[in-house]
């Protein structure tokens, strides 16, 4: 077995997406405020509540990984996927949040991945060139020639190449838009946003 710490690649991030913290914070607090005003404490305003962003992000990430794993494990050599951490940029100008997981691969992973590359060579050649060629407004830090990827993957075992090839293997088996729609639906079915809302303690502020 071999373990790698990899970005799962398909997560859209928390900024300006369906998982946007500010949008979901507002919705969750308004729902909890309505509940409290109806059944518990009267006279509470929006500013009397706090939303636990860190707990919300972790719950989203863990649920996203669980749903994503159903697709990733269709790749025979992937034996286990375990959530590790969320990596968030200081600024969202050029990148977004990433979810990293520990992937456990069977010993056959190189042979299986090489076979996939050989069988899908032309498709991979085109998509690798398209996604990894520098252009105006985008600088690529990865090779854009599929032939260079064989060494990057099977000699150097570079994580950024392995995680991208896993992405391509998943893409080859699925309609990506439908897959992401299903993953997003699964995440929200398992989230109760008001669980991340509480009434502020004295002196507490939203962070």
Can you walk through the features of this model?
The chain has 207 residues and is of the alpha+beta class. It has one domain. It is built from 7 helices and 5 strands. The strands form 2 sheets. A 3-stranded antiparallel beta sheet has the order 1-4-3. A two-stranded antiparallel sheet has the order 2-5. Helix 2 (53-72) crosses helix 7 (176-189). The protein is elongated, with a radius of gyration of 21 Å. It starts with a strand and ends in an 8-residue tail after the last strand. The model has no long low-confidence stretch (mean pLDDT 89).
Q: Give the uncertain stretches in residue-range form.
A: none
SSE string, helices as H and strands as E: EHEHEEHHHHHE
Shape, principal axes of CA atoms: elongated
Output the number of helix runs. 7
Strand order, largest beta sheet: 1-4-3
Distance between the termini: 42 Å
Characterize the biggest β-sheet: 3 strands, antiparallel
Number of strands: 5
Specify Rg, calculated over alpha carbons. Answer: 21 Å
How many discrete structural domains? 1
Mean of pLDDT: 89
Helix content: 40-55%
Q: How much of the polypeptide forms β-strand, as a percent range?
A: 5-15%
Structural class: alpha+beta
